[in-house]
Fold these 2 entries.
Entry 1:
Amino acid sequence: MLALSKILKDKGINFYQSGKFNLDSTFYESFQDEGEVFDQVFETDHKDGDIISLTGNIPKSLFKYFLDGSRKTYKIGDTTIDNKFVPVVAGQIGVAVCKRNDNGTMKNLMLSRVNVISIFKRVQKDDLDEIKRKIEKIQVYGIPFELLPYNYKSPAGHNERLEKIENSAIATIQKKMSDMEILMLTDLVNKKLLKTNEMLIIDGSLQFMQTKINGKKVDDRLFLNVVGLSKTFNPNLRKILKTKNKEIGTILPNLKFGQRTPVYRYPIEGRVIGAWYLRIREPKNMKNPLDGIVKLEKIAINEEKENGFETGLIDNISKSILLERNVTCYGLDPRWANHIYPIYLTEQFLKSSFLSDIHFLNLMS
């Protein structure tokens, strides 16, 4: 058992064990690309129109490695700190990589797991350091715990819960997961595993990949052979089509199987990201207009920042994604139409390392 109440009580902090529950099923999570602003087409061969048909085939996918990060968050109680009544949030975090062998079979290559407790940061530093030391001595089934203090600034006005305070804790846990993804990517690069014909797919948007870890800048060259794949995306983005007020979601349903959009440029925090959309399933088999469409992203390196991506590279990446879509996980996951199978297997491998919600919450006393 965690005995968190005793650890906090020893430092004079009241801990109230209110109803424990999974936050992921309680709070609506917005699209990862909610605030994106594309500003131009960003590939070398600027083809006319908003839809590009892929021609020809490639004999083998460019991808060999598949990375997924996942987290589960829980409200486990409340505390009174710095004259505020604030929540305590716990979480399970994991990052995994699977590799495809030469014979086509999938292998579990890497797994990193940690459990976390996130409390409001306004605790005396010495007390916070001692709480951290005690929590980080705890292990459950060989998986360590870590303390992640979160900060929260009350919005102007009287309603301090205008934005859920829990979201600040969840954002802190999400950042920890992103840091773990960067560290695992760094390990792959240092081992010289990634190549132009043995690339890595990261499940999710690349825009949240940290630019710094512990104050040290992340070298964007880590992403040379990396593509991000998002199963969900914001269909209301504007300013990228010929009619500037037209939303991207108005053209995506018109994509036929094997068609993509041009690459669009998206600058963020000193990085430049190229993003495009690809239909990987026949529209006639879909329930919803955006089912079977994925969003792909690549971080621009060196001269790509100025010149954009080689159209031939983007086409070959897109053709590789089409090769990855089968065997499908039809019926096993509500997002099946936007899944590629190796990512689905990596997710299953990672999530099998998590404790059930009931089991995990029973540890939080």
Note: The longest strand covers residues 63-81.
Entry 2:
Amino acid sequence: MNKKVNITTGTDASKINEALSASLKQYRSQKKMSLDELSRLAGVSKGMLVEIEACRANPSIAILCKLAAAMGVSVADIVNVASKPNAHLIAAGDIPCLWSGENGGTARLLAGTSGPDMIELWEWKMHPGEIFDSPGHSDGTCELLHVVQGSLLLTLGEERLIVSEGSSVIARTDLPHSYSCHEGGPLKFTMTVSERVR
């Protein structure tokens, strides 16, 4: 089981941490907002915000989502894979990995629109024993998932769904949920998230 849900280490983490640090500093400067105020607004500890602004933290996807929502932007805005007017090409080397599992799994944010109303496209790869837990997104968030390889165990609150290879599922993910590799072999799935940030 993956206990930590951190951004992957290495070059991706460094770029993402720098982009997040710059976004937080710019936002607080524009809004004349203290760390205490942003902490209350986002529901993220002041200590974590200090570490993020100093590029010393690898925040989880959940923390990225909370900060993006508090700032009225999308996670894609923060990691520089958000849409631009007309078209925005994202080179393969610029696609960030925002989660890495302890057995080699990854979650990459392939592309997304700018916030506050946003759509994101993700590619997930998971191996047996890996799990990603989410506390839930904002009200009305919907995810479309398609399993390309293997079998996905999707837990939504108390409900458990097994999504087999070639199958798809539509899920409201404004409640606690998790994804895990079900039964042997690797799992690969794509996910589109539609979220309206408050």
Note: The chain has a mean pLDDT of 86.
